[in-house]
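Please describe our next protein:
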Amino acid sequence: MKLDEVPQDEAFLIEGKIRDVCYVVDKDGHYTRALSKGWTPKNEAIKLAWDRIHEHAEEIRRQVLEGKLSPIAFYMEINVMDIAILADYMGIPKRKVRKHMRMKGFSRLTQELISRYAEVLNITPVELVDIKRISKIAIVHDD
């Protein structure tokens, strides 16, 4: 790709938050780096991925409000984590995270574990245990 062909399709990679580095050929025929604001196919793929995450978060929210899953499952999803990642951050086995994702296991958590989960999930312990709060959280992505 030539320097003047670097895609600049603004969407997800705007406002200087994230930019892609592309390796291009300059006017002298040498490889150099150029910043891209995005590329339409990549932007569409990112949008589809976020849409899927939001759909899954809505399903988990429903299960939390029905008492089938604990708030940990919801906050894990909106933080784009999986059980393995959360277990690593918590420093506990994956089986314990799975146990804590069920309401029965969650209701037995110590205040210390609740505080650790809250810190990892970037919320307060009070927010973690407030199930009504989950119904009010908007799950949207700014396009």
